Amino acid sequence: MRSIYLVARRDYLGYVQAWGFWLGLLLTPILMGVGMMAPTWAAASQPTRYYTVIETGTDFTDALKTEIEEDRISIARTALDPVGVLNGEPNETVEAFDAAIDAGATVDEALAEAGGTSIELPQADFIYVDPPGRTEEAIQPYLLGERAVDSPNGPQTLFAAIFVPEGDGDIEYWSENITAQSLLAKVRAAERTLTERRVFAEAGVSPRILSEAESRRRSIAEKRARPASAAATGSQVTLADRAPFFAAVMLAFLLWFLIFSVVNYLLMGTIEERSNKIFDSLLTSVKLPDMLAGKLLAVLAVALTLMGVWVIGAVVVGNAFSGVMPPEAREMLFTVVSAIAKPSLLVPAVLSFILGYLMYGAVFLALGSLCDTIQEAQTLMTPLIVMLMVPMFMIVVAISDAESPILSVMSWIPVFTPFLLILRVPAQPPLWEVTGLLVMMVAATLLVLWLASRVYRAGAVHGAGVGDVGKWFTKLIPGKKKGEA
């Protein structure tokens, strides 16, 4: 045991004393946060664009303005009550906001009536301006930027022009930006709304019947047969019931990210020791199984250090900003964290992390012992990295349907079990299935450790390379004779 501790301490200190380790430790959450916020920042930084509609009357213009406002209405409703909107049970504030919108108020006016004046909404992405011309030839200079249109913010370039003919002619959408499709989607939605109104009018039915039908629509209460959360009334489904699924996705991604990050230490460190002949010195004082266990333990400690620092940082940041967070957001965060702390999810997650780490860590250690250069390692890493990407795709599947049959089938593939078991736990699979998956994962981990130790001994002690191990596996093929090509 002492030799295992000494090897683990040597490798652990070698990793954590490097300035690159702490730089990566600090930059990783920052870069992940930037990556998650990038779409929001990109949308917020998008410049306001100006469009015009050339038509007889204002029907299409009004319908298009309504469609464009829908995005801001959705943002406002979520800001007023994020938990209630997510659960489909908005509070009285959102109901007051909806009533003001239905009465014809603007988004800002509706927010004021609902008491949400402190909420800052993003500026509208598209603003209507009066047509600077009525023909295509007259509009083209404004679309090309040769001339500017008058707007509330001064002269601006015209982003798009929509020509709406009388009768059944095609609507023409003119814009020099052929990649931005958001305004074009709104144009199509506005035409769909107007078409519905025309069909109702031709049938002799007042278009207002659509609004009346919407107002008389019954709410849908989502329930489940099994007992719901203690915070719910009866079997009503609430955020507390969905929280375990959110927590499982977070834990599965964290496991994937940590394994993807730390096993690289094992590979690169082993290659360096092999190329520098450090193996020879270590093996004179440490048994090979102890050295293998010590290296796995060292990088496991590195992973725990990463998680510990990130958790402490998250708690500190959460406490610092808890005062400015909306109560609904705090409730959502607390509910998800509480779901993570439940033994029914936490225990399988911890076991999956340890066994998954040992499985993949042993494989990368074995590969490192066979390679003299980074180039050799890269050729072997490629299939493993592709294999590690499969759980990420399954996480995407679990977000839409945690009880998907493909998750059930693929969870029985040992290399994917550590990730997919976590995703399946909130769906409450049968106890025999969870037990079977855990037993299979333990057996697979022991088998991988045994095979990895054989390969590690061949590479570290006997200097075997990638080609030698290929020959060793060839001998295992029944009927394959020695020397046979």
UniProtKB/TrEMBL annotation:
Q: Give the species this sequence originates from.
A: Henriciella mobilis
Q: Please provide one cellular component term from the Gene Ontology annotations of this protein.
A: membrane
Q: Where in the cell is it found?
A: Membrane
Q: Which GO terms describe its molecular function?
A: ABC-type transporter activity
ABC-2 type transporter transmembrane domain ranges (all copies)? 237-453
**Keyword entries, A-Z:** Membrane, Transmembrane, Transmembrane helix
Mark the transmembrane ranges: 12-38, 245-267, 296-325, 345-368, 380-399, 405-423, 430-452
Protein name in the entry: ABC transporter permease
Topology within the bilayer: Multi-pass membrane protein
Q: Main localization of the protein?
A: membrane
Does the keyword Membrane feature in the UniProt annotation? yes
Record InterPro entries? ABC2_TM
